Fold each of these.
Amino acid sequence: MVAPSVTGRTRPTKVKKHASAQKRKRDDVDVDKLEAAVAGLDVKDGGYKNFSDLPLSEPTTQGLKSSHFAVMTDIQARAIPLALKGHDILGAAKTGSGKTLSFVVPVLENLYRLQHVGMDAGLGALIISPTRELAIQIFDVLRLLGRHGHMFAAGLVIGGKSIEAEQQALTRMNILVGTPGRILQHLSQTVAFNVDDLKMLVLDEADRILDMGFQRDVDAIIEYLPKDRQTLLFSATQSRKVSDLARLSLQDPEYVSVHSEDRTATPKTLQQNYIICPLEDKLDTLWSFIQASKKSKILCFFASAKLVRFVYESFRHMQPGIPLLHIHGRQKQATRLDVTSKFSASKHSCLFATDVAARGLDFPAVDFVIQVDCPEDADTYIHRVGRTARYNREGRGVLFLAPSEEEGMLKRLETKKVPIEIINVRQKKRQSIKSQVMHMCFKDPALKYLAQKAFVTYAKSVHLQKDKEVFKLKEYDLEAFATSLGLPGAPRIKFLRDSNAKQAKQASTAAIDVSDSSDEAEDEGSAANQKAKPVRTKYDRMFERQNQDVLADHYQRLVRDDANESSQSKFSGLDGEPSARDDDDFLAVKRRIPAEADISDIEPQETKHDSSAGHRVVNLPGASQPLVIDSNRREKLLKSKKKLLNFMDKGKKLVYDDEGNPHEVYELEDEEDFKARGLPEEQRQRFLQAAQEVVQKADVVDKATAKAKRKEKIRKRKERERMATESGKLEKDEGGVELEDHGEDLLANFQADAASSDDDEARQEGKRSKKWFDSDSEGEERDSKKRKKGKRKTGPTVEQPQTLEDMEALAAGLLD
Ligand SMILES: Nc1ncnc2c1ncn2[C@@H]1O[C@H](COP(=O)(O)OP(=O)(O)OP(=O)(O)O)[C@@H](O)[C@H]1O
């Protein structure tokens, strides 16, 4: 066995000697004996309680001992023996129940027994996690367990610094922990990255990894991996579909769920409550809560990164008397790491977070998890609340629910067997910070801007929620919410306006439905009752519809004309005086009468009354056609001068010559003049020639402009490349790849800061920036597979071509 060089640096001889001594020591271990003991494990028995009951290698046993892991948790006791025997596993256990060890121990042990170690062995196990923080945490557990004699080279790939930095070391790895985006990037770009002999694939927080946001990446990763492997899936909530399992090629997976035993999805030591809190009172309530719990460690969840920032900034200004921290997917990786380690280390502090911190993170001793904004579903609730009461410790979760969210959310939680009870906020203890927040926003435009963004992102997040039984945008008092964020009024949001319009439309349709159904009810009622009601035709109903089409609008005006001339003027919006209707119709498109039209002049004059035909004919001044009045509607029409405008001639467009004489826009030329200029064919040829010259001249100018643009583009690209090369050189000079040698223990960590590339969580939130290696379609994915099979080439990094010029520039770049 070869001791892998796990760093980019030359290792000191002392370490090398130490490594080879360890190697020899392990060579002595009787792997066959271990193999036989594993084969004899009784997985049905479930009677293994301690790690020492299992046939584990010496290095792992030492690792567990030194970390003081002796007794297994339920999920560990059930999953580890099965995984040791090579079964595929679908593991579901509550948050904080020790799922990480359930796969880390089998990974180390199975590779150990297979002697899958050393540079030439290639990658033996791949562990995928949805967030960088969680990947780091898993890697730490791996290091902890592997530091007593395991010879594997392990790496962490979570995005960040230049990919080249990771590429070299990656080829030597035996175990890799990473986020989907970065792993896929390496699979498609790192030529020597060999996964053909992969033995184990682990998906932690599998439900999230298999969710839409990561689906494409995970599917693409799976394509690279050999089918004949062991797959372990772990999650706190499990509702996987058969299709997911087929995608992952699981073979007769063992379902290991430890939820069912006590019938709840959350730990027993967790006390869960909710309070009813309208949107506009959330900040007051949260502030009061923090004030009353200064000697606690609190984790608060919000719907968006902007809200997190706003609450963090505004609360910080008000000096709450407890250290405040904030974390969200938009921060740089280094900042996020700094925040997580600060929060982990602190005794009393309050962390404001988005769902980036909801899963898997193992913060020690969190007292309270406050879900200020309602989670998108029960699973998210469970993950969030699971940041407290971990591994048999106590903890409390408080969920803030707006009145409209209560019923729907409680239903969802009940389905997931979450025991939660309502509590009240002590009104005496509640402080209002509204005026302070408003004052701060007034004084600080940056904070006000942040408040606006927070408002918009919150409204957007609710608008985008799938579960409309819980999230009913219309039920929130958004004006009051905006005020509570220190804003003078709710910012206008396009989708809100659109949904208002839609709702108005639906409401009017519903009104018709109601009238329809009431009609039906009447049909079923007494005859007398029916008689009392006037007969209404479908046209009547159609005209009652508002905002459906122009006709309905016209009809409304007509009706008002009939009823009251003055109200008609209000409704039309010609008078400045607003009406209640104006408010209702805020989003409706109103037809306005052209200002210049003088409707007072329109005076219909009756010309003929044909009593036998039942109609009369009316002449309109300025109209070429007389108006036939043959129905009640037409009759009513006569009373509306505005309506009558529609029957007037529209007039002609004229052009005026230098002397002020009017002409038609297109006037026929005098025939004599035309003939004087030559034969028609000659004239046509002359015209074409002149036009051709003009086009040719324009073409020369266009080409010159395009060429200049192209040149400029190439120059900029080269400039960028030059700068990138220079900065790469600089990095190397300063120490190059940041490969931490956790060295004496033979586990390597190559990680990087978050400045660049794949922010998996940000992409989760729908903001994924497209990479050049990403594929849009299956066809393109097939291409990427081909690349993998045959010739994995790393091409020059280029921008996604957008225009023809871009493509030309790209082609020019490739040919250079
Ligand atoms: N057998 C054990 N003995 C003692 N402590 C343990 C044991 N197993 C795990 N723990 C501790 O329990 C805590 C939670 O473990 P872990 O993070 O693996 O939980 P999890 O089930 O993955 O949670 P989540 O679903 O939130 O990701 C950790 O601090 C870990 O050190």
Note: The first strand starts at residue 89 and ends at 92.
Amino acid sequence: MSSLRLQQVSLRYESASVPVLDAISLEVNAGELVVALGPSGCGKTSLLKLMAGFVAPSGGEILLDGTPVRAPGAERGVVFQDDALLPWLDVLGNVAFGLKLRGVARAEREARARELLQLVDLGGYETQRIWALSGGQRQRVGLARALTADPRVLLLDEPFGALDALNREQMQALLLRVWQASRKGVFLITHDIEEAVFLASELVLLSSRPARVVERLKLDFGRRYAAGEAVRSIKSDPEFIRIREQVLSRVLGALAVAA
Ligand SMILES: Nc1ncnc2c1ncn2[C@@H]1O[C@H](COP(=O)(O)OP(=O)(O)OP(=O)(O)O)[C@@H](O)[C@H]1O
């Protein structure tokens, strides 16, 4: 059972007077989908960069299965909002690219890439050019690519931020299916309250900068979807609406305190 754990992590960029993150503790265990929700500019992307190993914390510790995270590694798959796909390769080439760099033989890497494209509902798109895909399709390619190394944990930075409402909802549902099928630990950041409440098995609410954890909620709407309940049925459930409103008032409260 893999686990990515942050203990009292803080971050201050050298050029900045105000810290970005203040004593953040959280844990992403296998089979959990942890969502960090926070206002724009609070430090969500910085938090994800720390977990990915792109940036070192100023204080505290980040441990992957007990080992300190000091650099990026294939055991942490990352998907960013801007998908950063390679436009000169087709869909299959993009998904298989990381495996190619690691010296995996062509037949094996293509078989693995095809399998992952099926998982993200892109079977049949192998030879499509990247520029011919919609935003949602590109994000699915990014998700498949992040899964190629069979990472222990997936880190997603506002992966659906650039999508329209309908596409966004479809991608949320797809992510829940991939999460259930892979049983990996997933960490996702967003500033969309409904998305956070729908997806999270644990929702971590962050304050404005410097980001602190102001609330943690254990939720099960995503698991209900994965167990077969329809998205609309869940999102119109009075319990879902109650929690969404409760989180909204906490977010507004946290913003008012910071102002
Ligand atoms: N490399 C850096 N050096 C100095 N300051 C930085 C650096 N990267 C980010 N910041 C600052 O840290 C703060 C948090 O940025 P970050 O991108 O982590 O927030 P965010 O919550 O992801 O924002 P958004 O929701 O708008 O994407 C911002 O004020 C930003 O300007």
Note: The chain has a mean pLDDT of 91.
Amino acid sequence: MISLSAIHKTFNKGEPNEVVALRDVSLALKPSEYLVVIGPNGSGKSTLLNVLAGSVLPSSGEIKIGAQNVTALPEYNRSKWVARIFQDPLKGTAPELSILDNFRLAALRTSAKTLKVGTTNTFKDAVKTQISQLGMGLENKVNQQMGTLSGGQRQALTLLMCVMDEAKILLLDEPTAALDPRSAELVLQTADKLIREHQLTALLITHQLKDAFRFGNRLIFMREGEISKDLDAGEKGRLSEEELYKWFM
Ligand SMILES: Nc1ncnc2c1ncn2[C@@H]1O[C@H](COP(=O)(O)OP(=O)(O)OP(=O)(O)O)[C@@H](O)[C@H]1O
């Protein structure tokens, strides 16, 4: 269980450019919950995600992952619970290193128990087996530089590196914003498959309402720093496209 209790975030407090980004937001995420977050620009979606990741610390309120209070923990101290995919495919990986070395780095960073890190063929074979799940043929290119791959291929591999570790929550901040439609579809389908198979708790921010329909088992709508609608799987399933568009009016 991941819980945010009464989270408030004000940027530039006391300055002329003061902004209240989150107002008293409370949210509890159950294991295997795949939460989709939508809302107009500036409604606080990224701040909510950043507060969970630890890259933004709340002005007040409490964040717990399981029994652990992580409210004041910075991002680098949360990586054993939280994995993150950014909009920019270049952010998650080292372009000058091979696919295999990127997996080594990821495993070292997270001290994954599922894959023992090393220069041995055992590690290489384990990585190849993982990569073959993607169905992109990249298992035959593990010595190729990451920078030579397409944005979609890199996002898919970054997702895979995230689920190798013991992260309990996967944060996806518009992961397809920089991709062409075909690559975007591939990345979202890969994320969906991995979230189900690894029973991850996940949070996806998207501006694509069709994706908010198709993915996730819970949907929240943010407006002016608050959660103004919160639909469980059943309610989300009954939501019409027309209703969803009306929320933005
Ligand atoms: N680091 C920051 N410093 C100052 N203000 C910020 C900072 N980050 C966000 N804000 C402000 O907080 C408010 C919420 O921003 P946030 O990025 O969370 O919204 P969003 O819903 O993700 O928007 P978008 O859909 O445009 O990405 C905005 O008014 C934004 O300008």
Note: The mean pLDDT is 90.
